UniProtKB/TrEMBL annotation:
TM regions (residue ranges): 18-37, 43-60, 67-86, 92-113
Keyword annotations of the record: Membrane, Transmembrane, Transmembrane helix
Name of the molecule in the record: Uncharacterized protein
Domain of life: Bacteria
Annotated source species: Frateuria aurantia (strain ATCC 33424 / DSM 6220 / KCTC 2777 / LMG 1558 / NBRC 3245 / NCIMB 13370)
Phylogenetic placement of the source organism: Bacteria, Pseudomonadati, Pseudomonadota, Gammaproteobacteria, Lysobacterales
Length: 120
């Protein structure tokens, strides 16, 4: 990271992945808090606890490792989508519709990181 453009792209990527992790961690902790009041399926619990630990680990330890941050984020999202898809396969269409804007935003962040600016 030598040029200011590279540093700016790294800061954008780091900020966006930390924002994604923060949102995912809040969702996971909220699900765990609701499990104290209402019963949660065992599969949901066994996937939510490691996903929350992995997301928290990524927030703390992976500040300079973008690949590890994105891998932990993907694990957290998949671990929450898997029980829903197993119980109600018709929800896959709705989840794919909701994933399109997230995938577009993640693709733009990746393009910003990997792309070199054009010089006029």
């Amino acid at each position: 990271m030598s040029s200011p453009v590279d540093r700016a792209a790294f800061n954008v990527e780091q900020g966006s992945s930390l924002l994604f992790h923060g949102g995912l961690l809040l969702i996971l902790l909220g699900r765990m808090a609701f499990a104290l009041v209402w019963p949660m399926h065992a599969l949901d619990w066994y996937l939510t606890v490691p996903a929350a630990a992995c997301s928290l680990w990524a927030l703390i330890q992976c500040r300079r490792k973008p690949g590890m941050r994105w891998a932990a984020l993907a694990f957290g999202v998949i671990s929450q989508a898997l029980p829903i898809a197993l119980r109600r396969p018709d929800m896959l269409i709705l989840m794919l519709g909701g994933a399109i804007p997230v995938l577009i935003m993640a693709g733009m962040v990746m393009a910003l990181i990997r792309g070199k600016p054009r010089r006029s």
